[in-house]
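Example record for the data management plan.
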Amino acid sequence: MASMRDIKRRKGSIQSTQQITKAMKLVATVKLQRSKKRAESTKPYFEYMYATVHSLLAASPDLNNDFIKGNSSKNKAVIVITSNRGLAGGYNTNVTKLITAGELEKSACRIYAVGHKGKEILKRRDYKIEKDYSDIMNEPLFSDAAKISKDVLDKYEKGEAGEIYLAYTAFKNTVIHEPKLIKLLPVEPDYELKKDADKLTLMNFEPSEEEALSMIIPKYITSLIYGAIIEGVASENGARMQAMDSATNNAEEMISDLTLKYNRARQSSITQEITEIIAGAQAIG
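Corresponding structural encoding:
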């Protein structure tokens, strides 16, 4: 059985850790409220952009465009959105598992990392890190997403990447965050919309359909990347708040258990002292 001094020292250490986890939970909660509002306010725009592009494709199934038909390259550009810091539960590993445990072949993947943690995990697993944009996670802007979009589209248009993917965590609510891997290019029509193509409003294009699509797709890609970054930030703060809340509760349980052990050890020590005193008194008498 551990001594009273050891139990007291351990209890003090856990209490210090608990104070840190409480503070981190409060910070994450404040950040979550801000990032949640931002995610909720921007989400309708990106959903509408998605619906617009796929409605266009559904209404014009015979479009002949590089963004639809793709190219012959086997390489896959994968934009991976994680966090710059840890202590967020399984947030980062859940995103990287979409790649490491998914169907994407390692040798074909070219990683565009947005977040140090994802970059570190994939680099340890020998994935090729094409570019690192981790600094933008401190204060993401639409222009940052446009830069990423331009870089991956350049690779696609030059035939150096045959497909473009986006791995991120979708923000559902404070406690539900869903890791997602979506294919950005070549654009695949949404078959649910395609079923309803007959009900869609007739579209007239000026300039031609192909030219309109060539102008819209880069903005579409940028919009999805920016939306994913914003949702990723909200999901990160939600995951960190939950992780720190669990850590605080676990610390409370450990402190209660150690308090009980300390009291038992103290009672045992007092009982032993009383027994020794009685035995000594009897010996003298």
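Summary line stored alongside the record: The helical segments are 4-59, 66-69, 91-100, 116-124, 142-157, 191-195, 209-284.
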